Amino acid sequence: MVVKESPALDRIFQALANPSRRAMLRMLTDGEQNISSLAEPLQMSFEGASKHVRVLEQAGLVARRVRGRVHLVRIRPMALVQANEWLEFYTRFWNQQMDALEAMFDEE
Amino acid sequence: MVVKESPALDRIFQALANPSRRAMLRMLTDGEQNISSLAEPLQMSFEGASKHVRVLEQAGLVARRVRGRVHLVRIRPMALVQANEWLEFYTRFWNQQMDALEAMFDEE
DNA sequence: GATATATTCAACTATATGGTTGTAAAAGAA
DNA sequence: TTCTTTTACAACCATATAGTTGAATATATC
After folding, report:
1. What is the pLDDT of residues A91-104, one digit of tens each?
2. Which nucleotides of chain C are near protein (any atom < 7 Å from a CB)?
């Protein structure tokens, strides 16, 4: 098998692998926020948080619009939907396994 | 916000962020396989593939059982279900957004 | 016992990641 | 204009990741 590349999925899962970034996404479900307010509750430097935003942005998980000096960041759930679709295949597989297990018990 | 840690989720998403590892999971839906046969289609050294298996294992995405000299690896979809549950929150959010958008169009 | 197979371990390399600090720039407020 | 706020850029550091190679170990097979 030559591994079918999916750089988009790589970046999405990579972005989700960090708890600070997941926290940011959680915050953004309350609506658009600028980087400062995203940074504030995370105990790290502003620049650290800013880097996390860039990672999320490159994964397509957030988008930003610039209003004067503040950068407003909003969640873009479409990328998450993409991750979800990838996982769906396996949850289907999981359900099949569960069904098979049940059938085995029923046979006894 | 003090980021609520979830090392399990960290490891799961981290493991999924690599295309070779995702390919391995895909292969394992056909059933248990030993490391050699997982390694074969990936163009990398055996040891490279073996490391990937260890990453998947530590994320709880696969388990192995040793039968003599071969290590049989099987998928463990439970961890994937965990990732799926995390994503579910956002797909719900996504659907709400879609509904709101539809409502806006309807009003016009 | 000798050989082949499947795997791990150890050491190493290159690059990525997550974080820092200091400096600069742009925009709003005084 | 000056001061403050919000952000980016550059350089740096420590650690992790993805990969390699060579040697060792355990189990089958001849």
Report:
1. 887 777 777 777 77
2. 5-10, 17-22, 26-28
